Amino acid sequence: MNRTAAMMALGAALLLVCGASLAEEPAQLYMLNCWGCHRPNGEGITGTAPPLKGAADFLKVKGGRQYLIEVPGVSQSALDDSQVASVMNWILQAFSGQQLPADFRPYTAEEVKQLRAVRMLEITKTRDALIAEMVSAKIRPPPSHSF
């Protein structure tokens, strides 16, 4: 059994032993809802799911905060607004805490509710434009490939 499969099995066993309340913790919500595509350490899967490492960079450009919630995997997830806010705040801290802007304010359930109502139609185009803005502002180096 590889390491990832072993960790998933351990997580599932913990949920059975500890009960549903454990599943409300942001790290467990991430494991159950995001880990499959974005991987255990937020590294993503090239061509399928972008990395979450460095996600805080999106908070530094206009439209980036909204983008993080409006992407279909977030806006259309089965998680409620409070859970989305909780797991997104955890993702930002866990995978790019050192990059959070000084004026960072955590997502709230109300903000998530408003942002989830918007359907992003051109995901790749929007992401590319935000990344181009980050490159222009010297927040990120030019990407080696496009998503």
Explain this structure.
This protein is an all-alpha fold and 147 residues long. It has one domain: Orthogonal Bundle (Cytochrome Bc1 Complex, Chain D, domain 2), CATH 1.10.760. Helices cover 52% and strands 0% of the residues. It contains eight helices and no strands. It has helices spanning 3-18, 26-33, 35-38, 64-70, 72-75, 81-96, 109-116, 123-136. The model has no long low-confidence stretch (mean pLDDT 88).
Keywords, separated by commas or semicolons:
Cytochrome Bc1 Complex, Chain D, domain 2, mainly alpha, 52% helix, 147 residues, 0% strand, single chain
How would you sum up this structure in a few lines?
By secondary structure, the protein is mostly helical. The protein has a single domain, classed as Orthogonal Bundle (Cytochrome Bc1 Complex, Chain D, domain 2). 52% of the residues lie in helices and 0% in strands.
User: How far is it from the N-terminal to the C-terminal residue, by CA?
Assistant: 31 Å
**Helix count from the secondary structure assignment:** 8
What's the CATH H-level superfamily name?
A: Cytochrome c-like domain
| Integer count of domains | 1
Given this structure, which CATH class is correct?
A: Mainly Alpha
> What order do the SSEs take from the amino end to the carboxyl end, as H and E?
HHHHHHHH
Q: Could you give the count of β-strands?
A: 0
Q: What summary fits the major beta sheet?
A: none
Question: Which percent bin holds the helix content?
Answer: 40-55%
Low-confidence stretches: none
On the 0 to 100 scale, the average pLDDT is: 88
- The coarse silhouette is globular
CATH topology: Cytochrome Bc1 Complex, Chain D, domain 2
* Spatial extent as radius of gyration: 16 Å
